[in-house]
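Table S5 (text form). Sequence records supplied for joint modeling of the two-component complex.
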Amino acid sequence: MAAEDDFRHESVQDRRSIVKYLHAITAGIEQGQIELGTADHMLALEPGGMIELEVQAKRKAGRVKFSIKLHWREDEEEPSTEVLEIKAGPRS
Amino acid sequence: MTTRSEANATAGLRENFKFLALEVTKLIEDTQRMLASPREEVMTKIVARDDYVDNLKSMIENKCFRLLTNEDLNEGTIDLIRAINVATNNLERIADFGVNIVGQLGYLDDLDTLHRFEAEPFFESILSTLGVVEPALFRRDMSLALAICRSELEIDELYSAVFRRIMDDLRSGDSPEDLVTTLFIYRYLERAGDALLNIGEAAIFASVGEKLKVSEFQALEETLASASPDLDLDLDLADVDYQGIWETRSGSRIGMVHSRESGKRSVVFKEGRTKKVFEEKLALERWEQLEPGLPPKVFAYQENGDKASLLLEYLQGDTFQRIMLDSDGRACTNAYMMVVETIGRVWDRTLEPTHCKPNFMRQVASRLPDVFKVHPEFRGAPARIGELDIPSFDALLTEARSLDAELVAPFRVLIHGDLNTDNVIVNLPQRKVHMIDLHRSRLFDYLQDVSVFIVSNFRLKIFEPGPRRRLDQVTREFYAFAREFALAHDDAGFDARLALGLARSLLTSTRFEMDPTFSRTMMLRARYLIERLLSHRAAHGQNSWADFRLDEATIVP
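The corresponding structure-token record, covering 649 residues in total, follows.
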């Protein structure tokens, strides 16, 4: 993913309407693909492999923050030229 | 600025040092005379000598620091100058002890109390040792350096005999004041021995460039001497070039010993606890029988109480780890093929159809205190998110202990026991593979080796895409290779057992990983693998391990 592959969305919701967002996200995770972005710039994320999950809650002076973060790695697009050249299984 | 030759740079120092050693020797001889019969004129001489020693010390110190800061010198010369400085300080201390000793004489009521004990052997040892300090240092004579170190042992033994007798006499209640003064005098002689040891160690440092314990050098000397003569080893301490001796994680010491004459064999010297070193020797012999030339040859084995040492062949080639990181794709592929062919061959040839329980969780339990000592943050408390209960790490590991009884290998093979990729040496030009560090080798579940191999790639903190991709690819290929072996030998629980083996290796490796982020990654991966196994069992029952699939994404970082 290039550096300009960046998306941010902010809104105000209530408890009921927020669930719609969370459903959309969990459905995307289940399918292994989440599409998101704006009309002129869409991103397709493919969560897979090992995904780090960080759930954080914070309460300070009457303000509450609850965050869920996912991290994962995806393969670089250009494979390096110096990879192994193993074609068949090692033991024939 | 060109590098100045050592003889040239240190000529003045050497001259001063000779005088210093000589003056300290004379001062100690005067001290000996004073103990026999105190005389005013000898006392005056001692005071004058002590002043001269102090002056020489400052002069040498200044020269050392000037040389170290202003001159472009090679490393060996720098080591020599550091050693000269250490030796100078300790010679000055020996002179001070002499002055302290004669100072104590004033407190003695009756010289007879002092003369009940023999001081001559102490002085003999100190004086003869002082005589070889200068050549040991400047000629970098290892046997003289060792002789200096040994004098401390000798003086210690003399002191402990005198100490016991003084204690006995004190108990009998006779002239306690004079006995205490006598004890102080002998104590100064004993401390002179400690100063000599420092000088001996500095002389070793000057020849070797690294700080070493004397006992290790003695072991090396003895082991070299005991090497079988028909091996044409012909190395002895005097013409050996030491290339780094370092401490391993297991507490043993390893060093390369290269002969200065080209064309002569190089050897590896290992010293450690007898049990460990002896086990390694047995394993080496076993592997040698199985595949001659695979392990390093054993040139000598020497036991000395709880310590033992081995002299091993220095194998030509690179570690497989180096090859993965530094070589081109073709070389790496060749090396990989040679490595798996070798491992596969050993497995085939040693396979015994005896069930084997690797007890990976029990292995974790034995290392866990060390892991928590380094990473107390891993303990954690149980947590809850909504309806989801998340057990503490401890609780999860306790629950996972029952997995040991269920995950059994249907056969066992001769394993390496610590199959890190840097314990595999590949000699590409000669197309040879060698294994080193075989002291944990035994008949066991091959997945112990497979998991250690995979985790040794995982835990390398290399994240640049090129090399990382190479490591990950080797890991995947190795997994496929092991899986094929499992299929060929009806090892249905392969994936499940490997998952637990990986968890074990990841977790126990965290005790060597200080980086909080990376150690956490390893711990979380181990935790994930264990959770997967437990949830599989909860969903499918105890006899369902053949259905467990390891996601290949879990075996790479």
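Note: Chain B touches chain A at residues 328-330, 332-333, 336-337, 340-341, 344, 385, 465-466, 469-470, 473-474, 477, 480-481, 484-485, 524-525, 528, 551, 553-554 (CB under 8 Å).
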